């Protein structure tokens, strides 16, 4: 999962199935999740919320498996977002793999255990691109943005290629207006900032970073 913590288990850890969908304290309070790798079915609450429950009940690792309720909900998913700054390593499994582990964990004679090894690397070469109009009051800045990344599950030319191109067209037309209409229009009082955000698809990271930096520098 995206934002998963690192895992490098040197020995096998007990596997525990969380009943229901792991979205209520009652699902966790009657099992021994502490220091175990917990297995939770997808559904009801968000993936970050499931990670939070795993943290609160001091699990060593979290395995979320698909629920098999529709044709597109059997396979393991790529790019599933866990919780930022999580202390629990998390991984998403297919429905069939999840059920195999559920059956093994529920078999009293199996003594099911698991090892997790998750390598975590920081994203490199990802950033925002911003450009400001040369005039206008910097304390009255209008920010217009679109994200420049995409995901395999969607059409990048639409999400968000259309937005990034639309932003370019807007910037070009505003530049032409400034160049050709200076005698007909008063000076535009606002600064306009055009931004192309990075890492939007994994949690709005680019735009959040921009806002946080703006607050720090204000």
Automatic annotation (TrEMBL):
It holds the Pfam family PA. It comes from the Eukaryota. Residues 14-101 form the PA domain. One of its GO terms (molecular function) is metalloexopeptidase activity. InterPro entries: M28_fam, PA_dom_sf, PA_domain, Peptidase_M28. Its cofactor is Zn(2+). Belongs to the peptidase M28 family. M28B subfamily. This is Peptide hydrolase. SUPFAM superfamilies: PA domain, Zn-dependent exopeptidases. Residues 128-212 form the Peptidase M28 domain. It comes from Rotaria magnacalcarata. GO terms for biological process: proteolysis.
């Amino acid at each position: 999962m995206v934002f998963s913590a690192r895992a490098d288990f040197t020995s096998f850890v007990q596997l525990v199935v969380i009943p229901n969908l792991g979205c209520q304290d009652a699902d966790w309070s009657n099992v021994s999740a502490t220091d175990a790798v917990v297995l939770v079915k997808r559904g009801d609450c968000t993936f970050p919320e499931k990670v939070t429950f795993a943290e609160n009940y001091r699990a060593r690792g979290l395995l979320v498996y698909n629920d098999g309720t529709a044709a597109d909900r059997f396979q393991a998913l790529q790019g599933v977002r866990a919780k930022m700054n999580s202390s629990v390593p998390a991984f998403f499994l297919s429905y069939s793999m999840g059920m195999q582990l559920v059956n093994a964990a529920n078999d009293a004679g199996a003594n099911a255990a698991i090892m997790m090894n998750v390598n975590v690397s920081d994203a490199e070469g990802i950033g925002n691109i911003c450009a400001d109009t040369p005039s206008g009051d910097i304390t009255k800045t209008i920010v217009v943005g679109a994200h420049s990344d995409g995901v395999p599950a969607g059409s990048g030319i639409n999400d968000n290629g259309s937005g990034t191109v639309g932003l370019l067209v807007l910037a070009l037309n505003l530049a032409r207006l400034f160049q050709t209409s200076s005698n007909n229009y008063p000076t535009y009082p606002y600064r306009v900032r055009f931004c192309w955000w990075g890492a939007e698809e994994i949690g709005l990271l680019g735009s959040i970073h921009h806002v946080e930096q703006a607050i720090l520098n204000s």
